[in-house]
């Protein structure tokens, strides 16, 4: 009996030990999968496509073809450096704006990058600009947004899917809820890197980082930018955009901006870490500029405090407040406008260099 009992006891201990071992192995596997690196996921959206050729121009070049070439080249570079890349389209097909946003949202992407080319009735206009979503009400930005949003009307199911949103209505564009606000700082950070690379590396005219009501940016729930790489209606720039050299150089600049962005948000190749605490941009509200030096006292600036000043050439520029948060500095801009500086606007400083935000 003792022997039998002993065997039974040994058998029970063996089962318990095996069970514990299995649990430990399962838990360690769970931990390993939980902490395993997730590749940085980027959705690249080549604008237009299929029955939508893009912005019209006299030269006859097609925006949809230019941006697809840039998107595919950019995606190849990103994949080769270990990123996960999804395309909204990788061939000449038509997609609605809703379909493009859905692809990015269902993928739970880390970035959404929409690539476009610009057009204007004045062929002398040139340069690149990058947009983030925001309620910026300048007529120029609203007009660009409405033209890019026109793709919605090419969707036969527009009436069924778009509810009451009218992409050609100024009221609809302004009235959009700022669902992207959570990601606005990161979007502006990436957009500023793109524009900086275009200016430095490609010697393109920098038309700035801007906010506007693009539908596809409004409905993607991650840091998102829309790049207008240049004007097809400008003879020199149009030829550049339509060339293999130009398309490769543009994709190189966007690629480098994404790599810089990943470092700026403290993304590690070993862990999936995202932090906004490493934002290298400091935002301020510019309230005045002129050749006259003024002492930074509140009585010189209608009672405002937290003042700073720089000199560029012969011009002194004066600033109110300072913050790493764009949301916070927007409140300061409103305060400055309400207190005697109606033309106050936001600027950013990165590594000591000034750029306009709005």
Q: Quick recap of the structure?
A:
This protein is an alpha/beta fold and 358 residues long. The protein is 41% helix and 21% strand.
Key words describing this protein structure:
Alpha-Beta Plaits; 11 helices; disordered N terminus; 41% helix; five-stranded antiparallel β-sheet; 358 residues
Written description of the protein model:
It is a single chain. By secondary structure, this protein is of the alpha/beta class. It has two domains: 41-264, Aminopeptidase (3-Layer(aba) Sandwich), CATH 3.40.630; 281-356, Sporulation related repeat (Alpha-Beta Plaits), CATH 3.30.70.1070. It is built from eleven helices and eleven strands. The strands form two sheets. A six-stranded mixed sheet has the order 2-1-3-6-4-5, with helices on both faces. Strands 8-9-7-10-11 form a five-stranded antiparallel sheet, with helices on one face. The longest helix is centred in the first third of the chain and has 34 residues, at 2-35. It is globular, with a radius of gyration of 26 Å.
């Amino acid at each position: 009996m003792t022997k039998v009992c002993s065997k039974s006891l040994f058998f029970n201990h063996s089962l318990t030990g095996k069970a514990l071992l299995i649990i430990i192995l399962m838990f360690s596997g769970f931990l390993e999968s939980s902490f395993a690196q997730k590749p940085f996921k980027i959705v690249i959206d080549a604008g237009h496509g299929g029955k939508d050729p893009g912005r019209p121009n006299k030269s006859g070049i097609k925006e949809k073809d230019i941006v697809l070439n840039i998107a595919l080249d950019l995606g190849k570079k990103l994949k080769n450096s270990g990123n996960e890349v999804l395309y909204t389209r990788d061939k000449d097909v038509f997609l609605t704006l809703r379909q493009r946003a859905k692809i990015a949202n269902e993928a739970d992407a880390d970035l959404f990058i929409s690539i476009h080319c610009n057009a204007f009735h004045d062929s002398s206009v040139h340069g690149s600009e990058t947009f983030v979503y925001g309620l910026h009400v300048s007529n120029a930005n609203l007009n660009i947004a409405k033209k890019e949003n026109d793709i919605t009307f090419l969707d036969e199911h527009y009436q069924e899917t778009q509810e009451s949103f009218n992409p050609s209505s100024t009221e609809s564009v302004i009235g959009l809820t700022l669902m992207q606000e959570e990601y606005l700082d990161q979007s502006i950070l990436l957009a500023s890197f793109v524009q900086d690379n275009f200016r430095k590396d490609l010697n393109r005219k920098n038309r700035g980082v801007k906010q506007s009501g693009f539908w596809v940016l409004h409905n993607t729930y991650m840091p998102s930018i829309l790049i207008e790489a240049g004007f097809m209606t400008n003879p020199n720039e149009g030829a550049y955009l339509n060339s293999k050299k130009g398309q490769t150089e543009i994709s190189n600049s966007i690629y480098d901006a994404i790599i810089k962005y990943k470092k700026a948000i403290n993304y590690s190749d070993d862990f999936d870490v995202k932090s906004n605490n490493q934002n290298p941009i400091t935002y301020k509200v510019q309230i005045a500029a002129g050749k006259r030096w003024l002492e930074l006292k509140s009585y010189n600036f209608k009672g405002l405090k937290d003042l700073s000043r720089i000199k560029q050439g012969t011009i002194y520029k004066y600033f109110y407040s300072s913050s790493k948060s764009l949301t916070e500095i927007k409140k300061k801009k409103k305060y400055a406008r309400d207190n005697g500086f109606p033309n106050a606007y936001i600027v950013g400083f990165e590594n000591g260099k000034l750029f306009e935000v709005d």
